[in-house]
Write a structure and sequence with these properties.
This protein is mainly beta and 523 residues long. Helices cover 6% and strands 50% of the residues.
């Protein structure tokens, strides 16, 4: 019987196609393609398709297919949105194929999928969040695959910890330390899959020679000495703008140091000056600013170079290192009304730095000098004074000594302008050398730490400054990053709002604030 052709759609066949199209919500042209026969290697029903040894992926099928099995096929990869035309799938078996690659959006749109098997393939890695659309997933089979359990597997490691789906064991083929282990048994990827960096957060348009930080009433402050501008600038962390903003300004003459001292609920700032004597300022709540509290006699301190704050038992002290030829480095003590000169340490040595160190539970001061090796003074409990104890031999021309601890071990960093700076370790009897760092032109070698990351910042007047990071395995500092700061004079770590910063003062350029960030290598 001949079919009548008409303008509307081709008679009975056209009507049939239109009805099927309406039922399946796809255009008539697509329904023609849908009528292709089921391949010989497949078994097809209204609700399921099972293919063995085939590379055929059904593209045009009824919308109510709920089960698809492609077993022992020859697929080289699972492409993006490969099954998105089957939104009703509840079971997808892709066992024993030869694919090694699964694209990011391979399972996109399969919101009703409950069972997924990728067993016995050659999968070594899965793209991040490849299962993100599988809201209904109950069971996932990854048996027969061995994964590279490196940083790219970190997301899968975390997903396995959080998912409610039942997932087969995920075995590792590498790296060597995880070979034949289960991914779930890996302790953590935090160390291997993260690194750190320093990025410029804020640039302050002025020169500076020292930076000190202090906390008061849950706020973070920074005091910056600016000799050329004759200021001690106090900055406050702005919790809204997420920047350091101006809070107060202490004026003076050639200010070279600003050191904050917190006693009970009082905040003091020792302002060391090259001319006009040094002074102590106190924060006045009624004036909401720092006002002069006390003078430091000129006869004792004529060329201050460093201020070091320390506490012995319940008593508060600070020491000023004097670098003049007739200098008299002096210890000052708090007596509930003010600070008074407590002990003169020694004369004629042009001290450049003082560092308070606890060595085996005993209080010590290490004085650096241009005219002798660093000397170590020990606190005498009977006389309650510092007395000479020892020195650090063969370390002439040390500008500064800084102490720090790593894993309960005491270390020193010794800065030298000419020759190599040193890192030394206390071995219960003496300080022994750990590492020499080339440091021509260096004025500061500052240790600092953020959580478990330990650094040394080596500032140079002649080249880029270097940041070194501690290598736990080699037990040495290794070069980590170069930063450019003109004539750096100090480096100071400051933490606030769960963020870590690193101030770099500059004697000839702008003061820079770097942020210490953690970089996730698994992303």
């Amino acid at each position: 019987m001949a079919l009548r052709r008409g303008g509307g759609g081709g008679g009975a066949l056209g009507l049939l196609l239109l009805l099927l199209s309406a039922a399946c919500l796809i255009p008539p042209s697509a329904q023609v393609r849908r009528l292709a026969r089921c391949p010989a290697t497949c078994s097809c029903t209204k609700e399921s398709i099972i293919c063995v040894g085939s590379s055929w992926v059904p593209r045009i099928v009824p919308g109510d297919i709920s089960s698809l099995s492609l077993v022992n096929g020859t697929f080289s990869e699972i492409k993006d949105r490969m099954f998105s035309h089957l939104p009703s799938l509840q079971l997808l078996l892709l066992n024993s194929n030869s694919f090694t690659v699964i694209r990011d959006d391979a399972f996109a749109g399969l919101f009703h999928l409950e069972y997924l098997s990728l067993a016995n393939n050659h999968i070594k890695a899965l793209p991040r969040d490849v299962f993100s659309d599988l809201d209904s997933l109950i069971e996932l089979d990854l048996r027969g695959n061995k994964f590279e359990c490196d940083c790219k597997a970190k997301w899968l490691y975390l997903w396995l910890k959080m998912t409610n789906s039942t997932v087969s064991d995920v075995l590792c083929i590498g790296p060597p330390e995880y070979q034949e282990k289960k991914l779930n048994d890996v302790t953590s990827f935090d160390y291997e899959c993260t690194t750190t960096d320093f990025v410029v957060h804020q640039t302050l348009p002025y020169q500076s020679v020292s930076v000190d930080t202090f906390n008061s009433k849950n706020d973070v402050f920074v005091a910056i000495a600016q000799p050329s501008m004759e200021n001690c600038m106090v900055l406050e962390w702005d919790h809204i703008e997420m920047n350091f903003r101006s809070y107060d300004n202490i004026t003076g003459q050639s200010i070279v140091g600003c050191k904050a001292i917190l006693i009970d609920d009082q905040v003091f700032v020792v302002v060391a000056q090259l001319f006009g004597g040094s002074h102590i300022y106190k924060y006045d709540e009624s004036w909401t600013k720092f006002v002069k509290f006390q003078d430091i006699e000129v006869s004792r301190i004529s060329k201050p170079n460093d201020i070091e704050l320390f506490q012995i038992e319940d008593e508060m002290f600070f020491v000023i290192a004097d670098s003049s030829k007739a200098g008299l480095s002096t210890v000052y003590k708090w007596n509930s009304k003010g600070f008074y000169s407590y002990q003169s340490l020694h004369e004629w040595f042009r001290d450049t730095d003082a560092e308070f160190v606890d060595i085996d539970g005993k209080a010590h001061l290490i004085l650096s000098s241009r005219s002798q090796v660093p000397i170590i003074l020990q606190w005498n409990k009977s006389s309650k004074k510092f007395v000479p104890h020892s020195d650090i031999p063969n370390m002439e021309d040390v500008l500064a000594v800084k102490s720090f601890r790593m894993q309960n071990t005491l270390y020193l960093s010794l800065t030298r302008f000419i020759g190599d700076s040193r890192v030394m370790r206390w071995n219960s009897k003496q300080f022994v050398e750990v590492q020499a760092l080339p440091s021509r032109g260096a004025m500061t070698l500052q240790p600092f730490s953020f959580k478990e990351n330990h650094y040394l910042a080596l500032g140079s007047d002649y080249t880029f400054s270097q940041i070194y990071q501690w290598d736990k395995e080699k037990q040495l500092f290794k070069k980590f990053k170069e930063i450019y700061v003109q004539a750096p004079r100090s480096f100071t770590a400051v933490s606030t709002d769960r963020r870590d910063f690193f101030f770099a003062s500059s004697f000839k350029g702008k003061t820079k604030i770097f942020e210490h960030i953690v970089v996730d290598l698994s992303l």
